[in-house]
Batch of 2 targets.
Target 1
Amino acid sequence: MLNSLPSSQATRPKFGQKYSALRLVMDALTQNRNLQPQWRSPTPKARYDAIIVGGGGHGLATAYYLAKNHGMTNIAVLEKSWLGGGNVGRNTTIIRSNYLLPGNIPFYEMAMQLWEKLEQDFNYNAMVSQRGIINLYHSDAQRDAYARRGNAMRMHGVDAELLDQAGVRRHLPFLNFDDARFPIQGGLRQPRAGTVRHDAVAWGYARGADQRGVDLIQNCEVTGIKTDANGVVGVETTRGFIAAKKIGLACAGRSSQVAAMAGLRLPIESHALQAFVSEGIKPFIDTVVTFGAGHFYISQSDKGGLVFGGDIDGYNSYAQRGNLPTIEDVCEGGMALMPAIGRVRMLRHWGGIMDMSMDGSPIIDKTPINGLYLNAGWCYGGFKATPASGHCFAELMARDQPPAAIAAYRLDRFAQGYVIDEKGMGPFPNLH
Amino acid sequence: MRIKCPHCGERSLDEFSYYGDATLRRPEVNDQDANLLAKFTDYVYLRDNPAGQHQELWQHQFGCRAWLVVTRDTNSHLMTEVTAAAQKGEAA
């Protein structure tokens, strides 16, 4: 692979590029004197073949797959802050592909299959842990809905099993099964779901892209998108004008602002989502659990902290922090589900800005402007989608043709009436 | 974040429910208008989603049930104005 790098890369050390157990031992014996930065800090060139705006999970994954699968190495990722500082570093690390609608299942299952091979693929320990997820149901109607969802998943070749109460008890004996209002009747389990070390995903993709010659440019905010009669010509940034004929936007909660630079108005509202972690406790929850009567999901990190979250705050926000009523609501959900956590102290909570779309599903598509591509509207499902999003967005940018997995994620689906409304909530972003 | 309801005074956020952008106006329905579908697509789905001052509709659902127009900075959550929608002439 080193042979295929551009000549500017030739001065880089030839040994120790690949991470391995042997490398770990060698580094330990040499007291880490030979450790190399995982990626360069290049100055931006005047022109690239393609530019990705946004150095988060999706942007870095896109750059990685553009270089690896499509041979496009003269590209740059522009990040206004530091790599992976947005939602890829702020989520609750859950991966799953337990969707219902035909437009969604193949895409998220593609992501799941990429997760399963990811660490070997990009040679980085992302701590992919397929510990399973159990979505609990609390009524007969909800059981029917989960049976339907499980059947839809299995018809698409995704693993799913419907558990009765005894089945859930085998996995999670400490739940509040006989709650007076919301007794737990059972759950829908996806054994292949799980958690991933979220920061490592960004770092692994960044290192993989950098090794293939991609310029990762941090502290470089895009301030304008320049177009002419033929389409995009480049971007104005805080570090000067950079030319490119292809520009991909992967800006998560800031998508509306960046798209507005090209005169586009998006079907997106930005909302704050909070997440929480408790102090570290001994091993307690060995899977991911979601409460079916409220909105609460929880897993336990390898450090022992309980990582949990719930609904978005529900009003337009760019503040990266939320409000107390949502915290109370999330904790009430937790207490209803597993009263055992009542004495555990909360360690930290934080917020991220979600690009909530009008139907709760993402948009990966060309835009009406030639050469401008859009990857947005991830609501709060963006992390689990990262590998498939990057994979498909890279293919779209390289070939100008959307792969089948993202065929439904069109920007014009709202005008055409082909919305993908997984929850059936209508055009109200704060309800998805 | 607390909202100063013009009828009830300053109240906790969990008494209120959020609707969204208060500046949108439903297009006039006119069968002869060839752009009617585009206008309604804009109205139903597209948003300015500003980072900064935002006029938005809230309902004091667990209070006086009045609809309110709140002017709020989406970067800081600072509210500069809360008016009853009926007073503003909104169709509430």
Target 2
Amino acid sequence: MSITIGKGIPKVDAQHKVRGDTIYADDYSVPGMLYGKVLRSRYPAARILALRTARAEHLEGVVAVITAKDVPHNELTARFGQSTSVGVQFEGIYRVLADQEVRYFGEPIALVAAETPELAEQACQMIEVEYQPLEGIFDPVTAMEQGVRQVAEKSHNIASHFKIRKGNVEEAFAHADVIVEGTYQVPYQDHAYLEPESGVAWVDEDGTINIRVSSQVIEHFREVAEVLDLPHSRVRYLGTWIGGGFGGKEDITVESFLALLAWKTRRPVKLTYTRTESLLTHSKRHPFFMEYKTGATKDGRITAVQARLISDAGSYSALSPWVLLYATVNAAGPYHVDNIWVDSYAVMTNTPVTSAFRGFGAPQVNFAYESQIDRLSRCLGIDPLELRRRNFLRQGNSLDTGWIYDRPVAICEAAEKAWNALGPKVTSPNPRVAIGHGLGAGMCSYGRLTFLHDTSRSYINLELDGSAVIRCGVPDVGGGQGHILCQIAAEELGLPIESIKLFITDSQLTPLAGTTTATRQLYMSGNATLKAARVLRKRMLEKASQMLCVPVENLQVQAGKILSTSQPEKSVDLVPLVNRMSTEGIELFVEAQFNAPFTSIPASEMIEGQIHPDYTFGAYAVEVEVNRETGALRVPRIVACFDVGKALNPVIVEGQIEGGGIQGFGYALTEDMKIEKGIIQTPSFAEYLIPTAVDVPDLETILLESGTGLGPYGAKGIGEPPMVSIAPALTNAIFDAVGVRITSLPATPEKILMGMLAQEEGSE
Amino acid sequence: MQHYSFYKPRGLIEALQVLSEYGGRARIAAGCSNLLPDLKARHLQDCLLVDISELEGLRGIQAEGNWATVGSLTTIAELAGSPLLREGAPLLWQACQSFGDPLVRNRATLGGNLGHASPAADTAPPLLAMETSVLAESLSGGRREFPIAELFAGPGRINLRPGELILSLRFPLFERKKVAFVKFGLRNAMAISLASAALSLRMEDGLMQDVKLAYGSLAATPFRAFRTEECLTGMPCNEETLVRASTEAQGEVRPITDIRASSSYRRLLAGALLRQAARAALS
Amino acid sequence: MEIQSDLKVTIRVNGVAVSAPVQAADSLLDFLRNQARATDVKCGCNQGDCGTCTVIYDGKAIKSCLVLAAQADGKEVRSLKGLMDDPLMQSLQNAFLECGAVQCGFCTPGMLMASWSLLQDNPNPTREEMRQGISGNLCRCTGYKKILDAISLAAAQLLTEHAAAGHQAGQALGRSITPGRESYQASDRLDGQARAKAEYLLLGGG
């Protein structure tokens, strides 16, 4: 009988959020605070010939103007929350402020701190920049060619290149009964978190720069320290409860700017991006251009997959190599295929930085491979579910890197359950509406790349009054990353969850738990917390055993006490137990570290073996209604089925699936980020459309709990997986309804209608 | 750096005086649904913000016999929640249901929606189809009444005299026509119309008469599609008529290509929305 | 005629008069966050497109970034903090907690205000009417389902309280309920589950 595990307990942070008490980054103000503003490039590609800041500096109320020359280390090698290098193919540069050139529209050139936000803005307008515009490179496909101007610091525009070579695709294609080819394009996507990037920094009495910031990675204190040429210990991140991350607050956003301004002015500084600024200039999901070729036997066994993937790496590589790697490893999907050939390229262009976004490469290739599966099923006349059944990965099969996946795989059950929950397709009574059903299945890793040697730490302390304190550096983006640690501790130690006080994200006072990215927190800090809790629990049981004269194996931990299973009246309450332990000098605290599996860094572009700790498998089945006259889409039903290993808190788990599914819905249907010559044309929420409550159905979730996850109690990660496979489920449903194959997202009504008309013309 | 000032006139005369004195340097602040985003985006030059939001006598729906006079400060929410409008002017009422979102409806005014002169203003096609007249007043020109079709000069350009303020809109009530307003957006709320159509007609002996069709977002201004109306007049409402009228409509609209859609798609929508409106009106 | 560039306004925020200088182009949102220190009112876009700044102004739920601070002189504004003692708001807050409707929480204050306003005007909304009621409030985390479930739950409680006198408790209690585990299916009207859940909680369960 569990105390908290498996229960939909409200999150510990939720009660403050519903009262409006949570102090998000921009809600925090300090006496004497200045306001920061970033001056940004007006051109997507230009040399900076001159930069004159005198007029701005002399404006009354302006306290500091900073340009590249004022930054101690303006350029660092971009690693990623890593203390060790993992090789040149994963590195790029992190440039704080543009110096001789700008590579993207909106690139930061100068910083201002002033007494009011209006003055800061006015000062920015007074900074004179002399640009020499350059010919911009905007298309990754042409940017790969020889003789094209180099966008970045590397010798050519291909920032990264990876390969998969499994089996012999040439031979397999030669013998295939059917070959399906397709070209797919997926666009930028903006995280569109409701909280814009924001933070406040100040220098405290001992000269430490404190940065209170909405960030998914507090380990960036190291880079910020290096930027300022300070020891790491002189920069402290105080993370806030984050108003949405999704990967957009994974790279450094405002922190270096804040640190520089606070350091220069010796006053607190606040910097909050406007929504326009955020939409125009902050990092986006990688657009991918994908060419696929799939070969199969006539009874639907896929024998070969060949893929050429090109991602738009933007103007600074940031996490582009990593996203490309994820896409490469996921390129064939959750299917057992003996022959796979993948060439993938991340290509630099003069466009905004592309970096982490929920799914991190997996949703992009998933759109391609699930469209290929659907094409194959049509081509062969085999039911979409059945075709997948014949090819789904099973325990003991190898992935495209050759790694044997030796754990149970629930993808088949997930696809079946989702598809069957949709039920049979009916014909619409309205002749102008076509109904279609679509299936999408996918896999998504949880846990970081294993060659990064990921670790996480957590600390628990028992208080004399029977309460407890957890300290863990885990940033919380709203998915219960912090809360779940309290549930774990409450379960193991028999504490009511209300008596647990959680401290998170202080880079100097809470043990570093690693990034809130890669669907890794439940797995990593969850396991670290579990480990710490179990050590404490063991000490408690040993002492209780002594006190009660009952062997440890006959004792159980229940809410607030430890008692004998056979003689429940033999019990000791938590408070006397803890006090006894304290008197005897038994340590009432544990800091534990959890290590993910460690593998070696890939030696070259050839990717082989284990890359991730594990994967989460799931599927979506959707019903769509297409209006034949306008191409408009209505989605009455979305069914999701995921194997989550174990749902430690089913309400939170459902929330991740419902939210991720709808974010994927937006990616597939409504989020049309238009860009022209490197400048985003949709810089507001009125133009870049994320779904509202009247655009979406109630997402139906079916949870499978195989218990085979690597996380606490057999849990798998669920943060990113719901982003995968909803898009192709929708486009496959569109094909089912009206026979239009959408190969580039989003599937707008215009594309659908034009597709229908093209068909009509074709058939005449 | 822009400089803005603020003034709240105490009555209509004062408002007109200020508007007259400041001319193009004055901006009307009522619901501010368009004004404030423009201010924040620094799209407006130095100007005087004239707060008319509480001027007496410019808010509310008055019915006199078979005519309604709606004050320009009446909010979209007030219109959407009016039983009188639902029964008496259902075309306008329908447009108000899908306008923006409930929060914006609580502030946005009829005068503001028209005065902003966006080709996508959702209240414009119904008012055009209802042959609404506009009552406006300026200090120099006094009061004048004119058909709403004369109001729209181009995208963002309104045909008002210097210092002129829209006081009210007047349209017939209880015409007992078959009506439908159809709006097409890329999202179901908080969406600027890609295209919209307002249609009203009567069925007499199985034939369509007194057909009024107005389009939004399909030309430089909202407009009446007279040729398409002719095409429908005196015809039965069947597929054949609608197909022919759709073709006519596609030729009559003047859509643009922008970030939301291409002109060819909008052209197709013109026909589709007409057919949808006709079916809805007659169902 | 007094043309003012810098004005002083007094606005009653959650029952407290706040006087401060403002600029002509300042919005009510600017005033609330900067002068009145009402940081429970969020700024997600400052352009009228997201609803995180929703407050009750002059009795109506509106986006405070779309009101000039100068226009609000002498007016009443209520934010989430000003409704803490309101039984309907408390019911909504509890329902948001029960149903898991809070993830990052940034949209939550605005969403609660819009939901409160909806139930004030329409105490027994259909699920579709609930969707319409919050259609001006964006959420990026939840996909809206649990928010709608929470509104449903609060509405059911409202109804149950009003009908407490003549209501047969036994009829309303449907299946057994695990607190916080209930998944609400899409439905047109408040369904039996929502009523049952409300009954259960009213009777001290959960």
